[in-house]
Amino acid sequence: MRSFLHILKKIGKIALIIPIFALLYFLSAWMMASLPLNEEQPKGEITLFLVSNGVHTDVVMPLKNDIFDWSDVVNPKDTLSANPQITHIGLGWGERNFYLYTPEWKDLTFSNALGALSGLNRTLIHVTYYPFEPRENS
């Protein structure tokens, strides 16, 4: 009987610890989200586009604008084509094997899906250069 009471006490402590950790987690997230950051960023608007092939999605934005110049980070002149007509850049991020071996849904394998969902594999950033602004619904 004594060991049973000991087990119940341990279960009770664990049952209290879980909600306390959850409360501390949400409290700290709320506090950090309330901190003001980047208040002196330049004002302005940038048009962003979402471009998808049905499997992968890229965020497409102007290569250069008053706020940021992406060519300082990923310059199109460093590519094989070195196309000087580039006006927009598309960035996508994801699990490496999923990006490389799943260009279409028919190419999806169980192991690639599991690897992408696990979050344990290597990731990559996919960069696409556009010599034009993407058209809506294209």
Would you mind describing this structure in some detail?
This protein is 34% helix and 19% strand. By secondary structure, the protein is of the alpha+beta class. The protein folds into two domains: 1-35; 49-130, no CATH class. The chain has a four-stranded antiparallel β-sheet. It is elongated, with a radius of gyration of 24 Å. The mean pLDDT is 86.
Helices and strands in order:
Blueprint: H1 2-33, E1 49-52, E2 57-62, E3 88-95, H2 96-101, H3 110-118, E4 123-130
Antiparallel strand pairs: 1-2, 2-3, 3-4
Binned, the helix content reads 25-40%
Helical/strand content category = alpha+beta
- Tally of extended strands? 4
Distance between the termini: 72 Å
Major β-sheet, in short?
4 strands, antiparallel
Give the radius of gyration: 24 Å
Number of helices, where a helix is a run of at least 4 consecutive DSSP H or I residues: 3
Strand and helix order: HEEEHHE
Give the total of domains: 2
